[in-house]
Amino acid sequence: MPDSPDRFIIPSLRDRVSPEEWQARIDLAACYRLIDLYGMSDMAANHISVRVPGEEGAFLINAYGMLYEEITASSLVKIDVQGNVLMRPEFPSQLGYGVNRAGFVIHGAIHEASHEIACVIHTHTWPGMAVSSLECGLLPMNQTAMRFAKIGYHDYDGVVLDLAMQERLVRDLGDNNALILRNHGLLTVGKTVGEAFNAMHRLELSCRAQLAAQATGQKLVEVPQAVVDATWNNYQPGTRRPYGVMEWPGLLRKLDRLDPSYRD
C-alpha cells in the first residue's frame, strides 16, 4: 500500500507551538513592525525579544538579516539564555540567517535575571544615540521625560559581545524599566510587549524633545525636584494602570489596517 501523501506534509510552525507562544510571536512581530513604523528601526540591526510563555529560559528574537518591516510571527528564532537555537524560523532558514550575538548577550542577560520581564527592546535611533552621548544624560525637562527621572545608565565599553558584560548590564538596569546605554542607544523592558513598546516610544519622544529644546540655545525652565519626584512616582507600577496595555489592541488594529502580514 503506498504511503499517504499526508505523511510527508510538514506541519506549519503555528501547529508546532503552543497557542500562548503563537500569541507571543504575533505580539513580537507587531512590535518590530511598530518600531519601524514609528521611525525607530536601524535596517537589520538591533533587536526586540519576548519570553516564551511556559518555557523556562526560552525567548524569541529576530533572525539577523531581516528588516523590521519583513518580520512575521513564524520568522522569529527561539533561543535559550545561553544562546542555543531551540527552533529555527521557516523562511529565513533558507537564507542562513542566525542570531545577532549582541542581541543574545543583552537580551539573554535580562531574561535570565528577571522572570517578570517579558519583553526587551533595544534601539539605535539618532535622538537616543545623541542623548546617550551627552554628559547630562536625559533631563527631566517635561512631563514625559519625568517618567524617566530615575533612569539607569550603562557606561560604554565596546560592542556588547562579551558575556562578562552581562552582570553589569543587569546591575545598571536595576528595577527600572528603561536604560540609557552611554554612547550607544536606548533600552526598555516590560511585563508585556505593549508596556515595553510604550516605554520606548515615550523615551524616544523625551530624547527628541530635549534635543529640540537644547538646539535653540535658550535657557531651559527647571522644574522643582519635589515636583519631578512626584511626577515620576505617578508613572510607577501600583500608582496607575500599566502603561501600554490599553493602547496595544489599538496598535494591532492599526497594523491590521496597514499590513496584517505580521501575523503570518
From TrEMBL:
Matching InterPro entries: Aldolase-II_Adducin_sf, Aldolase_II/adducin_N
Write down the Pfam families for this protein, in alphabetical order.
Aldolase_II
In this protein, which residues make up the domain named Class II aldolase/adducin N-terminal? 26-211
The UniProt similarity line reads: Belongs to the aldolase class II family.
Q: Which PANTHER family match?
A: ADDUCIN, PROTEIN HU-LI TAI SHAO
Q: What is this protein called?
A: Class II aldolase/adducin family protein
Native organism: Falsiroseomonas oleicola
